[in-house]
Amino acid sequence: MHTTVQNLPLELLAYIFHLVRDSQPCAKRDYSPGSTETRQVYPAALSQVCSRWRSIAFSTSALWSHIDISTSIPLNQLHLDAIIDLHLTHARQTPLELHVFDPMGYPVSSSHINKPLHELIMRLASRTYSFNFDADRRYGPDTHHAILGTFFKGCVPGRLTRLMMRHDHDDWNSGFIKAKDDLDNDGRDLDLPTEQLESILAGVSILHVTRWFPQWTSRAYHGLTELRLNGLFTRIKESDLVDILRSSPGLRIFELGLDTDNILPMGVPVTTVPLNNLEAVNVSLVLCEELAALFRWFAPGSKPLQIAIRQGEHEYLRLKKQLGPFFSRSCVNRVYGRGLNFSHLVGLLELLPHLQELVVSWMRLNPSFLNREEIIRRTLDRRLERLYITQSSIHIEDVLALISIPGCLVNTIILNQCMLCRDGFDVPQDQEGVLLEGLKQEHPEINLIIQYTEEPSPVESWDVFASYADSES
């Protein structure tokens, strides 16, 4: 018996609508410069299919909770004002996801204060549970801080649970925000008292900040389940970082893209931070030489753990020294690595008995001293479900050495947009098919796939990156 979409129960169809809406770009990417047509974007597009879908879409208020507001008056007037009104009408009293962004290709306001924009943000702030402020250089820092101050003035303590702030200014001093009565710290004044600001930030459980931070002592860092800290030119003291970790024992996802200073010597005993719920760690922007000092503080629980690491162009990642102790007390089952080489892949298999999926991009060719015969003589009781290598140059001899390790079984190997080499020479693309068939005949137990175009990456479904695009940046 076949079931069509039209025969699905209302609740299931509404859930599918949610999935479709969440998978679509927001208005920042929906409108190109010069366009004068107001496009039907989700969920409005869903309501145009048929009367049944229209009824479901209009009666499901949560579908309309995402509100996009541009800092450009022309873009708002041309496109977004009507969409905002439509969403607010059908969202009714549903808590809102508010996204404020600087658009590309549209004129900016000539006024320091865009009065209609501030009035709208103030009106919606009390209903907002998720706030995403995506600022670039189209305005000065003062304009962006005024918008941020307006939002926080309108917030209701306890309502805001997800806060994402990013700016791209070169002004180093614009990195921190603070209350107007905070005279002890650097940063830009949001024109509201400490008690009001902290009562709002205390309710946040998901915090993504890039080059725009609450003070390190803020209650914004207490009780978090997800924390992503990024920012060029921003440094954090090791003691402040450890205090932040201790203030969020239920942390599930942690991302660090800041430099750490005032680091205790490695020989000094430390009291680790229990993080029993930790499931994803992204340190792909942390220098390799700082990994050991960072991870000595971590005491993860028994949950499967994803991790993202990177070897920079002028770095050398020493797995056993820099990550070995952390790996030994973790249950790492997924690894994303950028800039690694084949010896790192073998090292990860040795150090991670629970590893199921390994994704590597921009893989480096092997160091000349790598002894493949020595690798083959090792015995590893490992079962890797998938090895995915993308945008890399690969020696076929390395792949053969990996799958020839006694006790090591790799179910699927995917080579995406890779340059293959054999016996020191590049393999022409028109000969890769013959090479692939030969490898399949020699190793029928392995599903070996060569992809020539960009395909969905396994990382897209992981929590280690806020978005897959972050992994390639």
Automatic annotation (TrEMBL):
InterPro entries the record matches: F-box-like_dom_sf (IPR036047), F-box_dom (IPR001810)
F-box domain segment(s): 6-69
A Pfam family recorded for this sequence: F-box-like
Protein name listed in UniProt: F-box domain-containing protein
Native source species: Rhizoctonia solani
